[in-house]
């Protein structure tokens, strides 16, 4: 549950930044709350709270019950967190991340980059490097082919981890586990 909670907060942050995280936390604590109660708890303006709630609702992460006050005839909206679809949403996000990493890997594999050797200076494609006469646009040093094998290794590792998590690839058998012999 703790891991799911972390995922929920991460998604909330993507949707509405720190304020959305605060709203989710407040909802978790209260279980059910109106927008005004949430505004009071979090100190966030009620308009913003409302915007966040609708964004969470769109993402299928929050839902509400409409309750009529018999005396005043007014309707109150009681919001709660909805986690039924969370695993599905997490999976979709991981698939997206996987596609992004694969694309990055493809770019890193296909493209040769040129770099002056100073960290922070730009990596240029062949065409870009050609345009600058194979000198760094910042420091003017001569550009060399950039060794991106470490990046490629890292990307491959992350892709593999994600694919295992998504069940698209079998986890490698851990060979180093001590076989207990009697
Ligand atoms: Zn440079």
TrEMBL record:
SMART domains from the UniProt entry: TFIIE
**Pfam name, any one:** TFIIE_alpha
| Domain HTH TFE/IIEalpha-type: from-to ranges | 4-87
Q: A GO BP term, please?
A: transcription initiation at RNA polymerase II promoter
The record's annotation in InterPro entries points to: TF_E_archaea (IPR016481), TFE (IPR039997), TFIIE/TFIIEa_HTH (IPR017919), TFIIE_asu (IPR002853), TFIIEa/SarR/Rpc3_HTH_dom (IPR024550), WH-like_DNA-bd_sf (IPR036388), WH_DNA-bd_sf (IPR036390)
- Which keywords does this Swiss-Prot/TrEMBL entry list? DNA-binding, Transcription, Transcription regulation
SUPFAM superfamilies in UniProt: Winged helix' DNA-binding domain (SSF46785)
Q: Which molecular-function annotation in GO is an example for this chain?
A: DNA binding
Q: PROSITE patterns, alphabetically?
A: HTH_TFE_IIE (PS51344)
Q: Which PANTHER family match?
A: GENERAL TRANSCRIPTION FACTOR IIE SUBUNIT 1 (PTHR13097:SF7), TRANSCRIPTION INITIATION FACTOR IIE, ALPHA SUBUNIT (PTHR13097)
Stated family = Belongs to the TFE family.
The record ties this protein, via HAMAP family, to:
TFE_arch
Free-text note regarding domains: The winged helix domain is involved in binding to DNA in the preinitiation complex.
Indicate the quaternary assembly.
Monomer. Interaction with RNA polymerase subunits RpoF and RpoE is necessary for Tfe stimulatory transcription activity. Able to interact with Tbp and RNA polymerase in the absence of DNA promoter. Interacts both with the preinitiation and elongation complexes.
The entry's function note states: Transcription factor that plays a role in the activation of archaeal genes transcribed by RNA polymerase. Facilitates transcription initiation by enhancing TATA-box recognition by TATA-box-binding protein (Tbp), and transcription factor B (Tfb) and RNA polymerase recruitment. Not absolutely required for transcription in vitro, but particularly important in cases where Tbp or Tfb function is not optimal. It dynamically alters the nucleic acid-binding properties of RNA polymerases by stabilizing the initiation complex and destabilizing elongation complexes.
What this protein is called in its record is Transcription factor E
Q: Which organism is it from?
A: Thermococcus chitonophagus
Show the taxonomic lineage. Answer: Archaea, Methanobacteriati, Methanobacteriota, Thermococci, Thermococcales
């Amino acid at each position: 549950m703790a891991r799911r909670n972390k995922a929920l907060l991460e998604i909330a942050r993507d949707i509405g930044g720190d304020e959305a995280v605060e709203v989710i936390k407040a909802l978790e604590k209260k279980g059910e709350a109106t927008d005004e109660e949430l505004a009071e708890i979090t100190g966030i303006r009620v308009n913003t709270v409302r915007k966040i709630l609708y964004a969470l609702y769109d993402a299928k992460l929050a839902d509400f019950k409409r309750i009529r006050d018999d005396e005043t005839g007014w309707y109150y909206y009681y919001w709660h967190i909805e986690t039924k679809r969370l695993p599905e949403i997490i999976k979709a996000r991981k698939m997206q991340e996987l596609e992004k990493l694969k694309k990055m890997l493809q770019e890193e594999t296909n493209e040769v980059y040129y770099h002056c050797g100073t960290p922070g200076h730009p990596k240029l494609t062949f065409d870009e490097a050609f345009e600058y006469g194979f000198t760094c646009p910042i420091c003017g040093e001569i550009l060399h082919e950039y060794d991106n094998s470490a990046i490629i290794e890292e990307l491959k590792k992350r892709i593999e981890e994600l694919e295992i998590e998504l069940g698209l690839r079998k986890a490698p058998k851990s060979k180093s586990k001590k076989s207990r012999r009697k």
